[in-house]
Amino acid sequence: MIPDEDFIKDDRVPGPTKEEIRCLVLCKADPNGGETVADVGCGTGGFTLEFAKRANRVYAIDKNPQAIKITRENLIKHGLGENVELINDDAEEALKEIGDLDIIVIGGSGGRLSKIIKVGARKLKGHGRIIVTSILLETKIEAIQTFKKLGFEYGIIDVNIARGHPLERGTMMLANNPISIIWGRQR
Ligand SMILES: C[S@@+](CC[C@H](N)C(=O)[O-])C[C@H]1O[C@@H](n2cnc3c(N)ncnc32)[C@H](O)[C@@H]1O
């Protein structure tokens, strides 16, 4: 897993998704090397880089051109990118244009989550899965409701991570913001 501090960051682009959360998303996505993956709302490329190392092909999609630029820079910094296509477009439009997918990770939806999941679901191969990360209560409810409507199996975890920070007298545990991971797959 790539440490958070090894990513190039930008004030105009949120991310990277914290290392421990990337780890759990990979666990739920369970890539074995042969998959085609879409990282929807790639931001700084947190998921894009991890999947570039573990899947066959990755589409990194973001509507913010600065996010695409930073993701490209992070791929280059880490010697990755040969199997990555960067797409600067809105998620729904981009997903319509690309081929079949095994894994879709959604880290940003701009209030269009339900639509994005539905468009993405049409591209999923039989065993395909969609993983959503969410900091908003409303987003996780929307994800679950959409998976239910699609007849998908689904699951959710809330993750609260506290990292140890060394102080003079000991180690202080500092909490990160809680985040939810919601996943769905065809039955
Ligand atoms: C929280 S950031 C994702 C961080 C990323 N997972 C990382 O590790 O750097 C969310 C991103 O989603 C993008 N986004 C939001 N709505 C979108 C949409 N409808 N289509 C494409 N990108 C979108 C934003 O531009 C932003 O860069």
UniProtKB/TrEMBL annotation:
Gene3D superfamilies, per the entry: Vaccinia Virus protein VP39
Xref: SUPFAM superfamilies: S-adenosyl-L-methionine-dependent methyltransferases
A GO term, aspect molecular function: protein methyltransferase activity
A GO biological process held by the record: methylation
InterPro entries according to UniProt: CbiT, Cbl_synth_MTase_CbiT, Cobalamin_biosynth_MTase, Methyltranfer_dom, SAM-dependent_MTases_sf
Enzyme Commission number(s) of this protein: 2.1.1.196
UniProt-annotated binding residues for S-adenosyl-L-methionine: 17, 41-45, 62, 91
Catalytic activity of the protein: Co-precorrin-6B + S-adenosyl-L-methionine = Co-precorrin-7 + S-adenosyl-L-homocysteine + CO2
Domain of life: Archaea
Pathway(s) per entry: Cofactor biosynthesis; adenosylcobalamin biosynthesis; cob(II)yrinate a,c-diamide from sirohydrochlorin (anaerobic route): step 8/10
One Pfam assignment: Methyltransf_31
Keyword tags: Cobalamin biosynthesis, Methyltransferase, S-adenosyl-L-methionine, Transferase
Record keyword Cytoplasm present: no
Top EC group: transferase
Segments forming domain Methyltransferase: 33-140
Protein family per UniProt: Belongs to the methyltransferase superfamily. Archaeal-type CbiT family.
PANTHER family from the UniProt entry: COBALT-PRECORRIN-6B C(15)-METHYLTRANSFERASE (DECARBOXYLATING), COBALT-PRECORRIN-7 C(5)-METHYLTRANSFERASE
Protein name per the record: Probable cobalt-precorrin-6B C(15)-methyltransferase (decarboxylating)
UniProt source species: Methanothermobacter tenebrarum
